[in-house]
Specification:
The chain is mostly helical. The protein has a single domain, classed as Up-down Bundle (Amino acid/polyamine transporter I). The chain is built from 20 helices and no strands. It is globular. The relative contact order is 0.21.
């Protein structure tokens, strides 16, 4: 199917999409719960991919450095993620196009090129960190990263290049089950639940450079630009029609909430055991730090979660770059296509996986890469979010599905808040250099 053909009635495999198959088994008034579970897909995958190796390191560092103080901030970030991911999915469903394609059509070529260049550079650093996370997870099980990373890279590459979107999506959803390890790890750590509840519903901010720096990193790893690119492209590749959007909206909103609940459990787990000990440098360090208090079981749980998260993001991040570049250039893009049908799309994906795995094997300090990649994501996020909000406000793009008045205000406040934090970080950084 060419990139110009709308994907609203048939999925890439030529079968009826999920809503069409399930519509007959549900009523307009009430659908069985299993229908919503069956609709899980791009939204859940995109949001969970944000809990990757860098994300886990960031959340764990938040817990170890500031205890439960960032939980209220994460509640605010969750609102922003829900709003942004819903808009991204709605843009994909009602326009039949991904974000990069819409940016190319609605804005100048220069702006499109600038946005894609920034996204590609940022994503490349993330791909390296994902494979480094895979290696770190296997090292916790006693497996050398020089063995685990090449095998994992080959598996991820084969899954996308030789599979279909439906098949890849099922594997991605199975990987998401690994995130249930973190709530269990939090329970093992025996946190002070009264304090957790109090600092979740009431703000406990700290006026310090380190808290603001971490706040931008939390935004960057939770509302990453690549997640929104994948969320929009995923619903297009899946072939979801506007009539089926109520189910996809549950996927987008529910996926965002689920992912951030998992993120908060990571903060709770590390805060309960090592809160106040200072920042952490990696997810592996967080797992090992839990062992003296929570036992080896916590290390295993963190290792399982880290492996699942890194493998999921190791596929989603390079896919988002491939979708964005292919959409911006107007060429074929689909996981369900063969290499000869979508050479640029699958070629970019292959190159990122190869380069990311190779660089992660180099014995260099990847800590700086992990931290500053998340901050870079936080600085880029306001730019991508501005594109999303402007597109979602345009009736020429979405027709009657444009943002309502209240939704428009919430989205604007979210972007202004993220932008202000990013601006403060830039000013602080410049002052530090001077």
């Amino acid at each position: 199917m060419s990139s110009a053909t709308p994907r609203r009635k048939l999925n890439p495999g030529g079968q009826r999409s999920i809503g069409s198959r399930l519509r007959g088994s549900s009523t307009k008034r009430k659908r069985p719960f299993w229908v919503y579970l069956a609709a899980a897909g791009p939204g859940l995958i995109a949001a969970n991919a944000g809990n990757d190796a860098g994300g886990i390191a960031t959340y764990a560092s938040a817990g170890s450095q500031f205890g439960y103080r960032t939980l209220f901030f994460m509640m605010l970030v969750t609102v922003g993620l829900v709003v942004v991911q819903e808009m991204s999915a709605r843009l994909g469903v009602y326009s039949g196009k991904g974000l990069a394609a819409l940016i190319r059509e609605q804005f100048s070529v220069r702006l499109t090129g600038l946005a894609m260049l920034a996204l590609t550079a940022s994503n490349l650093g993330l791909v390296v960190s994902e494979f480094a996370g895979i290696g770190a997870a296997f090292q916790l099980f006693g497996v050398s990263r020089y063995l685990s990373i090449p095998i994992s890279a080959l598996f991820i590459w084969g899954l996308v290049v030789f599979g279909s979107y439906r098949y890849a999506e099922r594997i991605f959803l199975i990987m998401s089950l690994a995130f249930f390890a973190y709530p269990i790890a939090a329970l093992v750590g025996h946190p002070n639940w009264h304090k957790v509840a109090a600092q979740t519903v009431l703000p406990h901010f700290i006026a310090s450079n380190s808290f603001i720096f971490l706040g931008v990193a939390l935004i960057g790893t939770t509302i990453s630009p690549y997640m929104q690119v994948y969320a929009a492209a995923g619903v297009v590749d899946r072939g979801i029609s506007p009539e089926e959007y109520p189910l996809e909206r549950v996927d987008a909103v529910g996926g965002a909430i689920f992912a951030d609940v998992i993120s908060m459990f990571i903060i709770i787990a590390t805060a309960a055991v090592i809160g106040g000990t200072g920042p952490l440098n990696s997810a592996k360090q967080a797992a090992l730090a839990l062992q003296p208090v929570a036992g080896s079981g916590a290390v295993i749980l963190f290792a399982i979660g880290l492996l699942g998260a890194s493998a999921l993001a190791g596929a989603v991040v390079p896919l988002s770059t491939s979708y964005a570049v292919a959409e911006a250039l107007g060429v074929e893009r689909s996981v369900s296509r063969k290499f000869r049908q979508a050479p640029l799309f699958l070629g970019i994906f292959s190159a990122q996986v190869l380069l990311g795995a190779a660089v992660s094997l180099i014995p260099v300090n990847l800590i700086t890469l992990l931290i500053f990649t998340q901050v870079l994501q936080g600085l880029l996020t306001p730019i991508i979010l501005t594109f999303i909000v402007v597109l979602a406000n345009r009736r020429s793009v979405l027709g009657d599905a444009v943002n309502g008045r209240i939704f428009r205000k919430v989205a604007a406040v979210s972007i202004v808040g993220i932008g202000c934090l990013s601006l403060v970080l830039i000013i602080q950084t410049l002052i530090g250099w001077l």
